[in-house]
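Run log, item B.
One chain of 78 residues. Sequence copied directly from the ordering sheet:
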Amino acid sequence: MMNSIPMPDISPDFTIEDIHKIREWNYERRKGMSPQEIIDDIKAGAREFEVLIEEARQSMEKAATHESVTPALKAEGL
């Protein structure tokens, strides 16, 4: 029984008020859930986060590879 409460707006500076907003949002979303539903919700969020982290890691590796290849190509006049 997941509530459809919209996610709060978070400031670019990520302040303590933002943390309070997120905590309140999670409370409101989960207040009607059973303990197992809460665990499932947390695990689903963790899986989504893992995907984001992996995508960021691959992007960084690709950029690092590109940066290390580009100077070598420039040195060869390519």
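Observations after the first pass:
- Helices lie at 16-30, 35-75.
- The radius of gyration is 21 Å.
Flagged for discussion on Thursday.
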